Model the fold of this input.
Amino acid sequence: MRIDRLLCMLRFCRTRSRAADLVAAGHMRRNGERVTRSSQPVAIGDVLTIPIGNTVRLVEVLAMPARRGPPREAQSCYRMLDPIDQSAIAPGRDQTHEGKDRP
Done:
């Protein structure tokens, strides 16, 4: 399955064109390799690094979704490898020093 289609079906992006824009930005990775094309195939067992907003999600693909269904259905097709706000890659909101010790 194409990576842009998968991102849309797993509900990481609202539309397929937004998913293609995310890939075109050049920050997506599949199994540690930079994804350069939105048509790049993704298989079960692949690990995706997905930058979303100010966070980075690390996801393992467990199954290919048949459709863009409800969130519960989409979440059953992947496993989060890096819990939200626990990443060493992108610190969560409570880990940043917003204005502390600054004049």
Summary: The chain has three helices and five strands. Helices lie at 3-9, 16-24, 71-75. The mean pLDDT is 86. The beta strands are 29-30, 33-34, 47-52, 55-61, 78-80.
